[in-house]
Structures are given as structure tokens and as C-alpha cells.
Automatic annotation (TrEMBL):
One of its GO terms (molecular function) is endonuclease activity. It comes from the Bacteria. SUPFAM superfamilies: His-Me finger endonucleases. This is HNH endonuclease. InterPro entries: His-Me_finger_sf, HNH_nuc.
Length: 199
């Protein structure tokens, strides 16, 4: 077509021209309508990959196109796709990402987004009300404010039994106290002093 030679790819069933790196149905669509908008796919209306007449070609959004094809799959085909991903696609993808080319690609991607990744956001602390900046959204300006807020909310409270009067009391789990009050604590301290003196 137009001097280009399109041959059928036995694996996919599509007709492809390697010299222009394009499939026949895409070429036909672009010749009639211009390049498809980004994120859109050219779809065979009758599902016949050999029927590349313009009347049979439909432009669909990528998500609509994928949803349509997935809805046509049998349970067996879906399982085969999953197995292919697990045993072929994912291992090869991991291998490529670890390769020199893959690492270079990641470096380039990082360079493109690093300014946005490390951009500081203006925030206001929910506890003390101080304004501060951070590279990620967080509710508090410091660990101190976060810890105080958790104590006030009782998020880390646990129930213990007083070693002296056996009364149940609530206390922050990070506190070491084993008694419910100062008076009970004094009983423990007096006992400890007496034991040390007699030993």
C-alpha cells in the first residue's frame, strides 16, 4: 500500500510494516483522518484484523478499547494471560529495569519529575497552628506535636491493673507506670527502699 509492504505478524495477527514501524489499520486510519489523539486506539469494528478498510475502523479511548477486548475473553484466555504475565512479562520487565538501559531510563524519568517530587508544600500544623513546609502532606510540624495529639486523643491508651490497690486504670502504653495514682506509687517506692535497706 502506497509503496509500503505490510506483512502479517503470526503472533498477533496484525499486518505490520517494519520500515515505518506501524500497523496497517493504524496507517489506513491516519491516512484518512490524521494521527489519532494521544490515548486513543484504532479498533477493528468487526474484530477481523485482515479487514483494514476505513469503514471497519473505529477510534476508541484506550480504556474503552481495553475494556471491550477484556469483555470478549473467556475464563481460559484470562488465565493464560495471567500466566504469561507471571512467567514471561514480569521477569523480563524486572530484568530490563535492572539492566544498564533500564537504569538510564529511570535516571531520565527522575530528572523529569525531581523538582515536583521535592517541591515543598506550605502547611499548617493541626495541633499548634504553626505554618511550616514539607515535601509531602503531613498534619503536624514535628514528632513532638504528633505525639502530643495522639496522647490527647487517647490513641495509645491501654488498661492496666494497679499493683497496689488492684484498681483498673487507663494509661498511655508507652508510660512505664504500674500504679494508678501517686499514693499507690509511693507505696511501691517505700517497699523498694525497705527491701534494699534490709539486703
Amino acid at each position: 500500500m502506497d509503496g509500503y509492504r505490510f506483512t502479517r505478524d503470526e503472533d498477533t495477527g496484525y499486518y505490520r510494516c517494519n520500515s515505518i514501524r506501524k500497523r496497517l489499520h493504524q496507517y489506513v486510519w491516519e491516512k484518512e483522518n490524521g494521527k489519532a489523539a494521544e490515548g486513543y486506539h484504532v479498533h477493528h469494528g468487526d474484530e477481523n484484523k485482515s479487514n483494514n478498510h476505513i469503514e471497519n475502523l473505529v477510534l476508541l479511548s484506550g480504556s474503552s478499547h481495553m475494556s471491550f477486548h477484556q469483555s470478549q475473553l473467556t475464563d481460559e484466555e484470562i488465565e493464560l494471560m495471567r500466566e504469561n504475565l507471571t512467567h514471561n512479562a514480569r521477569p523480563k520487565a524486572s530484568e530490563w529495569h535492572r539492566s544498564l538501559a533500564g537504569r538510564e531510563w529511570h535516571k531520565k524519568q527522575y530528572e523529569k519529575v525531581k523538582d515536583r517530587l521535592h517541591a515543598k508544600i506550605p502547611l499548617t500544623c493541626e495541633l499548634c497552628g504553626n505554618d511550616f513546609t514539607n515535601i509531602k502532606r503531613t498534619r503536624f510540624c514535628s514528632k513532638k506535636c504528633k505525639a502530643k495529639w495522639r496522647r490527647e486523643q487517647g490513641l495509645d491508651d491501654v488498661e492496666r491493673t494497679c499493683l497496689v490497690c488492684e484498681k483498673k486504670f487507663t494509661i498511655n502504653k508507652y508510660f512505664k507506670s504500674k500504679t494508678c495514682s501517686k499514693s499507690c506509687g509511693n507505696v511501691i517506692r517505700a517497699k523498694t527502699i525497705k527491701e534494699r535497706a534490709s539486703s
